[in-house]
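pasting for the record
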Amino acid sequence: MKSSPAPAARPAAHGAGRDPWWRHAVIYQIYVRSFADFDADGVGDLPGATSRLAHIADLGADAVWLTPFYRSPMADGGYDIADHRGVDPALGTLSDAEELVAEAHRLGLRVIVDIVPNHTSDRHPWFREALASPPGSAERARYIFRDGKGPDGSLPPSDWQSVFGGSAWQRTRDGQWYLHLFAPEQPDLDWSHPEVRADFESTLRFWLDRGVDGFRIDVAHGMAKDLVEPLRDLGPDQVHHGIVGAGANGDHPLWDRDEVHDILRGWRTLLDTYEPPRAAVAESWAEGPRRTLYTRPDELHQAFNFDFLQAPWEASALHRVIDTSLAAAHAVGASPTWVLSNHDVVRHASRLALPPGTDPNAWLLSDGTRPPLDPTTVQRRARAAALLLLALPGAAYLYQGEELGLPEVADLPDNVLKDPVRVRSRRARKGRDGCRVPIPWQRSGPSLGFGSAPPWLPQPADWSQRSVAAQSDDPDSVLSLYRAALRLRRRHGGDGDLTWLKPDPTAAVLAFQRDTGLVCALNLGSESVPLPAGDVVLASGPLEKDPSGRQTIPADTAVWLLPDPCH
């Protein structure tokens, strides 16, 4: 047997001795606008989310993560914030937010909320003041304004590109340009300005004082930028559609700069003043070793593991990512995180069923027809991936609807698409709407129980059979599988270590044993394989038997076992 890599001695665990719940938690992501609609306007809201929290508690999750519900013009689904301490009227009120926190706590759920520090909305009072003030004014100093190039300043100050496509610079009426690494409606803040830092500390305290248990830090590797003149051009090889420059080592002008850690250390100091313990998770797309820096003992508690999310459905690749992720987390005393889907990527039920080498964006642009997906493969891999995710040591993040086996809605018609990525990329990318379609609760109704009005994005007709109501009493449903897995995880999963049971990382099977005794075996090959010794407690699909009568694991199937106490 081969143990997962870990150093001889680890730094003290984050929050050791202070109920570090985040180390082993299952966190359920609520995309607020698509979870539940209380006021019948077709858009999800905070009262709707509160009314459905029992579903998450019954599922067995430990916490919820809410996407932004702050005051916003919704140019980017709420990630363009006009008031970080106010609730958007379309989504509820401050009292509604406080009631959600109270109800979550009554149900035993902790609450994590999104913080978006890299930019504001262009409707933020600060930015309105900036546009109304002259170049060089104190009001503009909170953002990144620069004169353009060329004799009349008509060229952007640099060749920097927006993550959403096109130039990262937008010209104002007076001729200056401002930086926006995302949409033009999302001007970047200048984090060297003391007012910016002070205001965000006030925002953190505002929500902590209202009982939230932690934060998800949007674009945590942003904020700090090299703005020394002349601004450095990045050339034609810069990553236009990524969120970090490839190979960045702390010296990229826009992403993952070393200075960002000073900001995060300040936030950690603030979090540590609260009892019970509060936590923060970084959305950092920094590469491998650089991402580990965000979870050093004096910084954030966790960082999303996008290497796992992006890993192909292939045993050696998953084996390598799991080993690397565990070693990286252990090196700084943090707990690893595991995630398969979120509001920014193609849902894993569809993504994992694509043939190797398929570009998910190209597949989306074909409305999911090139190639067509095999429904059996979609279901089997989604179920198997769930058991792998929930067997791994550390924290697991679930995206709403994955417990229903929801696939990506790849064939949304052009006239309903809302994501600014589509426009900014000049339709070279379809965008993220397909993973944001409101989830189904009931078998019928104008929005399958999401609300009493048609939803803001249309739901496929066959989602009636994928609804919570349709799956709740079906012991073979995806929902029942998740509920069973989370019950078992409470006893046999969580934080800790694993030991590989099959030392050959090139084999088509992943098999490991947790320090609690739980064994997870996943067959990623095309042929059935022998079932390891032990008592089967959960399987993602039916098992088979070989000619001798011995049980086997079919392709795209995962099994959880406990050692036979008699052996």
